[in-house]
Design a protein that fits this description.
alpha+beta; 4-stranded mixed β-sheet; 8 strands; 31% helix; 22% strand
Length: 224
């Protein structure tokens, strides 16, 4: 593996460095609107979702190019994107496993941070042992009814959507009978409680579901 910078890499770095030196905020971004505005500015400049395929709004950027952007952001202490989980996990999952309808509905709004995403996996009595999760998704005909609890949900209090793992077959072996949903966080039956840390920040949340809905059109992959 050749880890040396090519002339093209060096030229790209200089362009990226100049942009962040001229545009990176000089003060802390304190509000969600400020963070979204910075995210959108980076998106307009082509620095968000760089590794995504071009047909879904990305740049097909090489890992080296992505590393250079991260390096130059760190050099000037530039804030990260407001939709990090959406860009790095949720969007790529939809790209690989989603239907074309799901891609058209969600991907652009993930890139622009019009919709913020979170991950709904860990549970109080299971941690990250997903085979032990207990959140239930019961088939109600045209949707699944969601009941249960998640914890350590990063950014849950600002999220519009989440990727949710729930048990759809309670009789299956514990490593089976689990399904993956794109889940609307802005609906009745969803309660988000921030978890205050010793620093007084509340980056993590616990999320409670009481007869909430996951639409069947938002199932990712096969049931169970």
């Amino acid at each position: 593996m050749d880890l040396h910078f090519t002339p093209e890499d060096i030229s790209f770095r200089m362009r990226v460095r100049k942009w962040f030196e001229e545009n990176a905020p000089k003060q802390e971004l304190k509000t969600l609107d400020e963070r979204k505005a910075w995210h959108r500015k980076m998106y307009d400049a082509g620095f968000v979702g760089m590794g995504w395929p071009k047909e879904y709004g990305g740049k097909n950027a090489r890992p080296m190019e992505q590393a250079i952007v991260a390096d130059e952001m760190a050099r000037v202490s530039a804030p990260s994107t407001v939709n990090g989980l959406g860009i790095s996990i949720c969007g790529p999952t939809i790209i690989v496993h989603g239907t074309e309808q799901q891609k058209q509905r969600f991907l652009k709004k993930i890139l622009t941070a019009e919709e913020i995403w979170c991950q709904l996996f860990s549970e109080p009595n299971a941690g990250s042992d997903l085979a032990s999760l207990k959140t239930r998704a019961e088939d109600q005909g045209d949707y699944f009814e969601i009941n249960g609890q998640k914890v350590w949900t990063s950014g849950g209090f600002i999220a519009d959507w989440g990727i949710l793992l729930a048990r759809t077959d309670p009789h299956a072996p514990k490593h089976q009978g689990i399904s993956f949903f794109l889940f609307n966080m802005r609906q009745p039956g969803v309660e988000v409680r921030p978890l205050k840390q010793i620093t007084a920040n509340a980056d993590f949340c616990e999320v409670f579901f009481t007869n909430a809905r996951a639409e069947k059109e938002n199932l990712i992959g096969q049931l169970n």
